[in-house]
Design brief:
230 residues, alpha+beta, Ribosomal Protein L22, Chain A, four-stranded mixed β-sheet, 12 strands
């Protein structure tokens, strides 16, 4: 079963008040990595992403925080050391940090919806996707662009290939009741789901299980602290 969780960034004053308490649950290497970010949002995303994964592993999977160690694939995807049955993925954009958990490979992507030059699609989308995008009324193009972007990114993250596989090398087809993905003429055996978190953010998840959630469980900072101490 795929599970989705998310936490929103704090205002800067609240984050400064809680930063030491949050970092106390992370290894020194993680807090040093977070400190490299220049702005508060980047620091929060780094801290919240790992803290959320650790909290869920403790509360849902029975780990103690000190037992949790991560390793990385050759393409940089984080993995839980010592477990082949627990897979997770993290994404962040705008006000949200999200993560997905599954017994199979899983990918998740969140994006803040913003004004964009749609010609960028000609570089990253397949010919069929580009044709569909520009055939839509202007007031529908932004939603379609970000639906596609998050779905395609979630697929690459589930594969764990990073940008070694081009976004334009496969096609996502959006129907009213179905989302399918083709690599050339071959329909890929993956499940995809798109979710709108709020008016400014879109989310997509990709997995190898038949049914994916159509909602995200929102967590708060106090929840994470309680879960990691459980």
């Amino acid at each position: 079963m795929v599970e989705l969780y998310g936490v929103k960034l704090l205002d800067e004053t609240r984050f400064i008040e809680m930063k030491s308490l949050l970092c106390a649950h992370l290894p020194d290497g993680s807090t040093k990595k977070a400190a490299r970010f220049r702005f508060s949002a980047g620091v929060q995303r780094q801290i919240f992403g790992e803290l959320m994964v650790r909290s869920i592993l403790c509360s849902k999977y029975g780990y103690q925080n000190h037992q949790i160690h991560f390793e990385y694939s050759k393409n940089g995807k984080p993995l839980l050391n010592g477990s082949k049955n627990i897979h997770f993925n993290i994404s962040h954009s705008g006000d949200w940090v999200v993560c997905a958990f599954s017994g199979e490979q899983v990918g998740v992507d969140v994006e803040k919806v913003r004004n964009i030059n749609f010609n960028i699609a000609r570089r990253f989308y397949s010919e069929e996707e580009v044709a569909t995008l520009f055939s839509l009324p202007e007031n529908e193009q932004t939603d379609f662009f970000f639906d596609l972007w998050t779905l395609k990114e979630s697929y690459l993250k589930a594969l764990g290939t990073g940008l070694t596989k081009s976004l334009s090398s496969f096609t996502v087809k959006l129907a009213e009741s179905d989302i399918s993905l083709y690599d050339g003429d071959k329909k890929m055996a993956v499940s995809l789901e798109k979710i709108r978190l709020d008016k400014n953010h879109k989310l997509a998840v990709c997995g190898y299980e038949d049914k994916l959630p159509d909602y995200l469980e929102r967590l708060f900072i106090d929840d994470l602290l309680s879960m990691i101490q459980s």
